[in-house]
Design goal:
Length: about 525
């Protein structure tokens, strides 16, 4: 007797129909896995592009990376759910997803930079692009799973293992290609456009050639036209990338941008009228009044023995200029991670004129190295036992990548290099804008066993305000100017005393220090 229920189940179950393929099934599976590899590599490049650009444009790399990655991971879950609606036509669905991903991901950097340059902010655009790219990346794997099962049925565990193995290896290649190939060879903008083109070609080739038997001629023509349009848009964007970057830089930096260069460490931008130096989009030198900052950093620390001086950072040579004004200086060691910035400060006519050709002085020795690592390797010079003066002319403490350079451990390394009567001067941010951040730096210096004297120079308004910490191993150093020192243009004994009183009127002594395990910017 025939089991009627089994017969009904057999009739209801969908019948597996192998698609008409131009290659054997084994080769077709290999090609699909290759597409998974390429798509994963492109997807990770999009993520890294967004993280890098968000950190560069907005600052605080930890926060921006967390926002971008968390939004993208959430969106990938949404994309996986939405992919179920495309499973009835997986080849067309996958092609549509790749076309959209190539367009959105390829143009993402240009759109974010435009939003920042002309509208003054990029956070909303960053969130929108992170979500859109995440949704499209999340839809890829379910559709590819359906396509690979169409070629040859296998158990779900085996298919998932194959797909995710190709996906993870592709992510590895994309993650390595971004810093070592795309950034140095193409830059962020063109690198994203190249990635989008690769993405479009890989997705289109798999569907329009390998799975062409699953698609009607009209659908193939439409998909081919859409791919051609996307590639044309990306090519047009690449062709206009140069003028676009120049216009965007003009909008961001103002003045006449005469040099814009991505070094191995940071983006360096020099403007001519007025002379300004930007590092990673942040103003570091303003030619008309930079001397106020550099005199305040250098001259109080030089009030005492200063035969041997160590400058940490300061590749622009302006703190070095002030140090060399003191005739008693016997040697200066300058440590900066960006050798290209040092070369510009030495060779660029305007910048070299501003620092009075400080790098030509035979007393100067330059080390192109990570400041923290250099201090770990450095041993105090003999026979004196250390540097008389150490000047920390470093990026602002509020920048996440600079956190270790404002940590208790960092100042402990600095203390090891100081002579018994040596002094350390630290630029500790803008107390008018971030009072707690300033006192966090002070607490970190004191936690390393140094005694501090604090002073605030400026008006108390944002970038017009500079806070400094002067420190010594045995007792708090006196805030004064050397009697035989060259006279600063902007700093007098009375102005220095006033700066010390400003700091004394607003103390925050209960803040914890910043450490490598607990970095704090405020």
């Amino acid at each position: 007797m025939i089991d009627q229920s089994a017969s009904r189940t057999a009739r209801a179950a969908p019948r597996f129909r192998r698609p008409r393929l131009p290659v054997p099934p084994a080769a077709a599976r290999a090609l699909v896995l290759a597409a998974v590899f390429v798509c994963a590599a492109c997807g990770l490049v999009y993520e890294l592009e967004l993280v890098a650009l968000a950190s560069y444009l907005v600052g605080d790399s930890v926060t921006q990376a967390s926002i971008v990655l968390s939004v993208m991971v959430f969106a990938m879950g949404v994309g996986s759910l939405l992919a179920k609606r495309l499973s009835c036509a997986p080849a067309i669905g996958f092609a549509a997803v790749e076309i959209a991903l190539a367009l959105v991901g390829g143009l993402s950097v240009m759109a974010l930079y435009a939003s920042f340059a002309w509208f003054g902010q990029s956070r909303p655009a960053m969130a929108v692009f992170a979500f859109a790219i995440g949704v499209l990346i999340g839809a890829e794997i379910p559709l590819l799973m359906t396509l690979i099962q169409r070629i040859r049925r296998q158990d779900a565990g085996g298919a998932v293992a194959d797909l995710f193995a190709a996906d993870y290896v592709g992510a590895l290649v994309g993650g390595l290609a971004f810093p070592f190939l795309l950034l140095p060879c193409y830059g962020q903008l063109t690198g994203a456009l190249v990635t989008g083109a690769v993405n479009a070609v890989a997705g289109g080739a798999i569907v329009l050639w390998l799975f062409r038997g699953d698609i009607t001629p009209r659908a193939r023509a439409r998909l081919l036209a859409a791919n051609v349009v996307v590639l044309a848009v990306l090519a047009g964007a690449a062709w206009t990338a140069g003028p676009f970057e120049r216009a965007a830089r003009q909008a961001v930096y103002g003045g006449d941008v005469r040099l814009a260069e991505q070094t191995g460490v940071q983006e360096v931008v020099l403007t001519a009228a007025p002379l300004q130096l930007f590092l990673d989009g942040r103003l570091r030198v303003r030619g008309r009044d930079e001397y106020r900052y550099h005199e305040a950093l250098v001259h109080p620390a030089m009030a005492g023995r200063h035969r041997r001086v160590l400058i940490l950072g300061g590749g622009d040579g302006l703190a070095l200029r002030e140090v060399l004004r003191h005739r008693e200086v016997g040697s200066v060691t300058l440590v900066d991670p960006d050798a290209r910035l040092v070369a510009l400060a030495r060779d660029d006519p305007a910048l070299a004129r501003l620092n009075r050709h400080a790098y030509r002085d035979t007393r100067v020795r330059v080390a192109a190295a990570d400041v923290f690592d250099w201090l770990r390797r450095e041993r105090p010079p003999r026979p004196s036992g250390g540097y008389d003066v150490v000047l920390a002319d470093l990026p602002d403490p509020g920048i996440s990548r600079s956190a270790k350079l404002y940590s208790q451990e960092f100042y402990g390394l600095v203390r090891r290099t100081l002579a018994p009567g040596g002094r350390l001067a630290v630029h500790a941010g803008a107390p008018g804008a971030d009072r707690r951040g300033f006192w966090t730096v002070d607490a970190s210096v004191r936690a390393a066993g140094l005694r501090t004297a604090d002073y605030w120079i400026g008006t108390g308004r944002g970038d017009e305000d500079w806070g400094f910490v002067l420190a010594a191993p045995l007792r708090a150093p006196a805030l004064r100017l050397a009697a035989d020192a060259p006279r600063p243009r902007s700093l007098s004994p009375a102005a220095l005393a006033s700066a010390a009183r400003r700091a004394e009127r607003a103390p925050l002594r209960d803040v914890p220090p910043s450490t490598l395990m607990h970095p704090r910017s405020g």
